[in-house]
Amino acid sequence: MKSFLKSLFVLLLVISMLSISAKQARSQSIPIDFTFSGTCLGSPTYFYPDTIVMAVYGVQSVYWTFGDGDSSSLVNPEHTYANAGIYPVTLTVYADSGYTGTVTHNINILPNPEPFFGYNFPNCSGSPVQFFNLSTTPLQYGYINISIWNFGDGSPTDTVNFPNSTDVSHIYYSSGVFSVSLTVITNYGCSDTTVKQVVINALPSVDFSYTPAQPCALNPVQFTPIVNIASIATLYWQFGDGGTSVMQSPAHTYSVPGTFNVSLTITDTSGCVSSVTKP
After folding, report:
1. pLDDT recorded at residue 170
2. Contact at 8 Å (CB) between 133 and 145?
3. Is the Cα dihedral 71, 76, 80, 81 positive or negative?
4. Residue 158 and residue 165: Cα distance in Å, rounded?
5. CB-hemisphere CA count at 13 Å for 217?
6. Residue 112: CA atoms inside 13 Å, Cβ hemisphere, count?
7. What's this model's pTM, rounded to 2 decimal places?
8. Maximum Cα–Cα distance for the chain, whole Å?
């Protein structure tokens, strides 16, 4: 009888130990980890679990929480955050054996730079237009490393790298409305773009005539501009003998005979300037 009781005790002890061992095995934690890429606001952040650990432990399912209320059961999810900030991202994995594993990493979603630019006036075809890069980055979030200008006229883009001046000039050879864009990229790789419509005005057409056709010294010569007077802001005449006038149709008397180069310079209401010179 004693032998039977002893055998029964040993059997129960073995069963108990096996049960404890099985419970410990089922509760063993999987040493899972993950990496991520892309931490700019408004762009996807990509998540990559340790697939080697997953294979070794026979992981069959995963569950992600992204720290902003969203979640995913995809193995390699991507997630776009609506706001900048620090988010605790948690990955939990499950194996058929009952093993589980959990890991959390804080990720810092960075704000994008704030692109902005201005340009000088007037903007006239054939004359340089100066563009000023007024972009900024939020405090403590790096600096603008690359500025890319697209002038909207089919010309090559102008890329400026830090620390060079990001203010640029560009000549438009025709008038019209051009979509000018500025893309700025920080040293963290975050970027944003702004677009403005820039109006380029045509140069005013200018010419003039004078009478008589064969003027004589000491007799008045009448000069008449051939322009669209309604669009002209100022006129400036230079008669080649030191004399000038700002009148619309001036008369000028030459005191000595000779050949004189007469110039007419006009400025239109857009601020564009044209001139013509005739002997």
Report:
1. 97
2. no
3. positive
4. 12
5. 7
6. 18
7. 0.76
8. 155
